Amino acid sequence: MKTPNWCCASPPLWPVPFTDVRVEGYWRPRIEINHAVTIPHVFRQCERTGRIANFTRAAGRAQGSFEGSAWNDSDVYKAAEGAACSLAIHPDPTLDHELDGLIAELAAAQEPDGYLYTIRRLLPPEQLPKMAGAERWSNLRNSHELYNLGHLIEAGVAHRRATGKTNLLSVARRSADLITSLWLDGDMGQPSGHPEIELALLRLAEATGERRYLETARRLLEIRGRLETHALYGPYSQDHQPVLEQREAVGHAVRALYLYTAVARYAAATSDPAWRAAARALWDDIVRHKLYLTGGLGARGDGEAFGAPYELPNETAYAETCAAIAGVFFSSAMLQMEADARYADVLERILYNGLLSGVSLSGDRFFYPNPLASDGHTGFNRGYPDRQPWFECACCPTNIVRAIPQIGGWMYSVGENRLYVHLFEQSVAKLRIAGTHVEVRQITRYPWAGDITLELRPDMPVQFDLMLRVPGWALGQPVPSDLYLYADAQPPHENPSLMLNDQDTDFQPLEKGYARISKVWKHGDRVRIRLPMSPRRVISHPSVRDNVGRVAIERGPLVYCIEGADHPDRVVHNLWLPMDEPLTMEERPDLLGGVVIVRANGRVRRLRSNGQIEMAKTSIIAIPYHVWCNRGANEMCVWIPAESPRKQAGDGS
User: Fold this and answer.
1) Which residue, of 233, 251, 477, 579, has the fewest CB within 10 Å?
2) Distance separating alpha carbons of residues 449 and 468, to the nearest angstrom
3) CA distances (Å), 342 to each of 116, 268, 434, 506, 630, in order?
4) Cα–Cα distance between 204 and 159 in angstroms, integer?
5) Half-sphere exposure for 86 (CA within 13 Å, toward CB)
6) 3-state secondary structure 74-123
7) What are phi and psi of 228, to 5 degrees?
8) Contact partners, residue 273, CB within 8 Å, separation at least 6
9) DSSP-based three-state secondary structure for 403
10) Are 14-410 and 413-469+497-530 in the same CATH fold?
11) Which of 10-14, 383-387, 432-436 is predicted least confidently?
12) Whole-angstrom Cα distance, residue 15 to residue 612?
């Protein structure tokens, strides 16, 4: 992995591309379902709703007007990116041919100078919605012109990486060159109301080595929040103050996280201390004050926005699936900026909980918001209390298809004579370090079991440091802040342990969360880490008012919930879990695709026939949060009362 020639400095870590990692364990079925079910489903929905037809009509190859909203072009680009990423690890001539046909439509719809915005091509000025603007770029606060093109550029980069073809990248570069001519060479001073183009240009710069794209991304970042260039859009669009002065995560959560990812990636590319400080401050604010236990991001449905510090309601949590995906991008970019396991801790939490909850086990039903509690009736999910096959605003399903295939790309990184292992998954990775090709094999049943064995197979003996992440949750810290804490002490016999070639080895002191093993590695060397996997209770910072008197359950990287489908009358909101009741585990290969459940003796509050309230013993079953609502709409909660409901109500009993 070479440093692109546009970089001012090498970032500490270069991720091993997902194309060089063969995923074989827990994530493999999700990747297969994404390829076989989710991608075809998303393309059918894009056809059914006119999203693809908009391009055919804009190209003059069919009659008809524009269908949908101004941002609908982006859904087609994200679907194309997902298909390309899937092709990279799952060759499919039929999908490859279909994708080439779609790319031909995009190229034909593009205007000669690179502009591509089908609503403007298909509707006369008097019929354009106000958000689109009367002319090009005239309402960048709302138009999504640059947002759409950002996703086009990302799709072009992904497609070239996956197939080696340049047909989609050529379309993307024409648009990128137009933007560069206006914002870098010209005097355009308005940023995009929905950040994304900044991140896309940085990825294009990395893929092509063209420094002009890096400089254009910086220009778009620097004009944000500056009154001398435009009338400010405000906090909703993160345009309330200059980016380098922003220290609190505010506004629309997806927009914010795309922007913050660009800040971190720019900081990684340039090693500029001001940009690094801004990225750290924004990430720290989220992790200290605004991160759901599930990794969900964005507390408010109003504005799809971050709330105030510690504002983390459960039943009304928005926690949009797109925000979880953007949160993965942000933490991954932070990890690229500086090697610190706390970024991988949060990345893992989001992946296994807040992101994966967004798609059903069947692959064709989705969540838009991801609440931490549901009454089973109220429409939390864009008006429905259940997973849906599609949404009028379909950003989440199309984002899922591009995220799932890239799981392997967040597992390993290479630094200066160092190999970092961030995530655990049965897999085979091929990489180059210290001038030598190395194959790394992971053998594990993670996240169901805590034993992970790494076998290293270098082409020849080679000296380097193996940096193995020891998760914060395995060391007694669920997140790298005091926002959440474990309520129980971890048994001494369940501390993490490390072995090298079957010999116990000391992994302390850790280096920013990583155990360092420095040696000359030979073919067949084996490292084994054992992580404690007993279920544990979690409590919130006392300022999180919705969780006072409640506990959650975690096991390894997984957050658990209780769901009505596992309890009498499909009701869970009358249950409570005393703090002194033990938690036990049970493997259930027959349930929800195969899970480990957690059992406990709890209490239930019932209304007897004589009108009296009865408190009785009952069995509580907890399942991994990410698989809830795969058995229909029903009650669910992550945070379970730990005291009698009567005591919580203050009746003195």
Assistant:
1) 579
2) 17
3) 40, 17, 26, 21, 31
4) 12
5) 29
6) HHHHHHHHHHHHHHHHCCCHHHHHHHHHHHHHHHHHCCCCCCCCHHHHHC
7) -70, -10
8) none
9) helix
10) no
11) 10-14
12) 61
Q: What are the contacts of 580-586 at 24+ separation with CB within 8 A?
A: 583/534, 583/535, 583/536, 583/537, 583/553, 584/535, 585/533, 585/534, 585/535, 585/555
Rounded CA separation 206/5 (Å): 9
Q: Are 588 and 622 in contact (CB under 8 A)?
A: no
Tell me the Ramachandran region of residue 30: left when phi exceeds 0, alpha when psi lies from -120 to 50, beta otherwise: alpha
Residue 645 is predicted with a pLDDT of 55
The per-residue pLDDT for range 300-325, each reduced to its tens digit, is: 999 999 999 999 999 999 999 999 99
Select the more confidently predicted residue: 369 or 1.
369
Return d(Cα 80, Cα 86) in angstroms, integer.
Answer: 10
User: What's the CA gap between 635 and 247, in Å, rounded?
Assistant: 37
Average pLDDT score over the chain: 95
Would you state the structure tokens that stand for residue 234, as one six-digit string? Answer: 């405000």
Q: Residue 453 pairs with which residues in a beta bridge? A: 443, 528
Q: Cα–Cα distance between 409 and 563 in angstroms, integer?
A: 33
Topology of the domain covering 413-469+497-530: Maltose phosphorylase, domain 3 (2.60.420)
The tens digit of pLDDT for each residue in 457-495 reads 999 999 999 999 999 999 999 999 999 999 987 665 689
Integer Cα distance of 437 and 85 in angstroms: 24
What are the sequence ranges of the domains in the chain? 14-410, 413-469+497-530, 536-648
Q: Kindly indicate the confidence band of residue 551, based on its pLDDT and cuts at 50, 70 and 90.
A: very high
- Give CA–CA dist 213/262, Å, rounded: 13
What is the Cα–Cα distance from 160 to 173, expressed in whole angstroms? 12
CA-nearest of 106, 115, 118, 112 to 137 is: 115
Contacts 24+ apart (CB under 8 A), 207-212: 207/157, 207/160, 207/161, 207/169, 208/173, 209/4, 209/5, 209/6, 210/6, 211/5, 211/6, 212/180, 212/184
Of 606, 546, 544, 610, give the one whose Cα is nearest residue 576. Answer: 606
Identify the burial level of 127 via C-beta atoms within 10 angstroms of its C-beta, where 0-12 means exposed, 13-18 middle and 19 or more buried: exposed
For residue 509, is the peptide bond before it cis, meaning its omega torsion is within 30 degrees of 0?
yes
In degrees to the nearest 10, what's the CA dihedral of 585, 588, 592, 595? 50
Residue type, 39: I
User: What pTM, to 2 d.p., does this model score?
Assistant: 0.96
At 609 the pLDDT is 72
Contact yes or no for 577/638 (Cβ under 8 A):
no
* Cβ atoms 344, 467 nearer than 8 A: no
Concatenated DSSP letters of 407-429: GGGGTEEEETTEEEE-S--SEEE
- For residue 259, the model assigns a pLDDT of 98
As a residue count, the chain comes to 653
Listed in sequence order, the residues at least 6 apart from 272 whose beta carbon sits closer than 8 Å to its beta carbon are 8, 266
Are the CB atoms for 249 and 260 separated by under 8 Å? yes
CATH no. of 14-410: 1.50.10
Q: What share of the chain is helix, strand, coil (3-state, %, to 5)?
A: 40, 20, 40
On the question of a cis peptide bond just before residue 447, with omega within 30 degrees of 0, the verdict is: yes
